[in-house]
Design brief:
mainly alpha, elongated
Length: 141
């Protein structure tokens, strides 16, 4: 029996993995905004101050000056400072995620050590094995 596309989509969308991934993406987006603010508003101003009042996002190379009519002929710039800023943001986000994953792995490993591993019980003998055991016992007598 063929499933309709809507039924297939519903099954796909409500799977546990999909919901976990959606939550992770939403939290990741929020985490990214927090880290971007941390870098832009907290970390970079002191670094810029140490480097002589440099704001990385303002660093650029003008490839062509703006024309007389700046609206019709805007300047063409190569914004390498913004690229530097994005690389710093990415590095800090990656490091923070590394620390979170490392902590989660440590917790997971600690839980595995705490779990008592009990071997599974041996399987119940089949009727055939029980019958053969009875025959063997009778033959011994």
């Amino acid at each position: 029996m063929k499933k309709g596309m809507l039924a297939e989509f519903k099954e796909f969308a409500i799977k546990g993995n999909m919901m976990d991934m959606a939550v992770g993406i939403i939290l990741g987006a929020g985490f990214g905004k927090i880290i971007t603010s941390l870098v832009s508003d907290i970390i970079m101003p002191p670094i810029g101050l140490l480097l002589g009042n440099v704001n990385f996002t303002d660093l650029k190379l003008v490839l062509r000056e703006a024309g007389v009519d700046a609206v019709a002929n805007p300047a063409v710039t190569w914004n390498y400072g913004n690229f530097i800023q994005v690389i710093i943001d990415f590095t800090i986000v990656a490091f923070c995620i590394f620390l979170v994953v490392k902590a989660l792995n440590r917790v997971r490993d600690a839980r595995k050590k705490d779990e008592v591993v009990t071997p599974p019980a041996p399987p119940e003998p089949t009727n055939e094995e029980k019958l053969l055991t009875e025959i063997r016992d009778l033959l011994k007598k």
